[in-house]
Specification:
- The longest helix has 21 residues.
- The strands form 5 sheets. Strands 1, 4, 7 and 8 form a 4-stranded mixed sheet that branches. The chain has a 4-stranded antiparallel sheet with strand order 3-2-5-6, with no helix packed on it. Strands 11-10-13-16 form a 4-stranded antiparallel sheet, with no helix packed on it.
- The protein has 2 domains: about 90 residues, Immunoglobulin-like (Sandwich), CATH 2.60.40.10; about 100 residues, Immunoglobulin-like (Sandwich).
- By secondary structure, it is mainly β.
């Protein structure tokens, strides 16, 4: 009888171990990078960093993972796949709780951060359908502070177009609007682009880092 009881216990333990072994692994993702101080002469070392899941429509948020930067300002935060009604991440850093919003969720990501007063973005343009001379125009619209800028491009560009410097206040995604004249899209100087134009959002991390935006038109 004792032998039978021991065998039953061993069988239960074995089945329990097998069930745990067959459980699907939870995906993990890593956000990492380097944080540089405002004068570029020092790094934000041994500083708190954390990630929160966020829903931009409902404003719900949930803490995901926390850590600290190392002696060289590097950070690396690994978290389990986020489920639920969340569509982006917010990265908090430093003792004052500075934050970067709008980071993609459930993706591996490298994000360098600078506390400088500006950030640079390089625009790359690639033509899927070449602009037709005298009959086609590419418009690019973006804002710096209270000033809205619209570039009018009539010649084909394949590769680097320009570098634009944005102020530090742009800690969230920036929206770039582009439109082509001969594709049923139009621009009215008084009303802006028609609703069929295309939005692209991008992120400015600050000098000396240069982020790149690629536009296929």
């Amino acid at each position: 009888m004792k032998t039978l009881i021991l065998l039953n216990i061993a069988t239960i333990l074995l089945l329990s171990h097998c069930n745990k072994s067959n459980a699907p692994a939870i995906p993990t993702y890593t956000v990492k990078g380097k944080i540089i101080g405002s004068s570029f002469t020092y790094v934000l070392n041994n500083a708190p960093v954390s990630l929160s899941a966020y829903n931009a429509q409902t404003y719900n948020n949930e803490s995901v993972v926390s850590g600290t930067t190392d002696a060289y300002g590097n950070y690396e935060l690994t978290y389990n796949e986020v489920t639920g009604n969340y569509n982006e991440l917010t990265l908090f850093y430093g003792s004052l709780g500075n934050s970067i919003q709008g980071l993609p969720i459930n993706q591996n990501l490298t994000r360098n951060i600078s506390s400088s007063g500006s950030g640079n973005v390089a625009f790359m343009l690639y033509t899927n359908n070449p602009l037709e001379k005298s009959n086609d125009t590419l418009f690019l619209s973006y804002s710096i502070g209270n000033q809205n800028t619209i570039d009018t491009i009539t010649s084909n560009v394949n590769g680097f177009y320009k570098i634009i410097q944005f102020p530090k206040t742009y800690t969230r995604n920036i929206y770039l609007l582009w439109s082509r004249l001969n594709k049923g899209l139009f621009y009215n100087p008084n009303k802006g682009f028609n609703p069929n134009s295309t939005n692209i959002n991008f992120y400015v991390s600050g000098s000396p880092f240069i982020d790149t935006v690629t536009i296929n038109y």
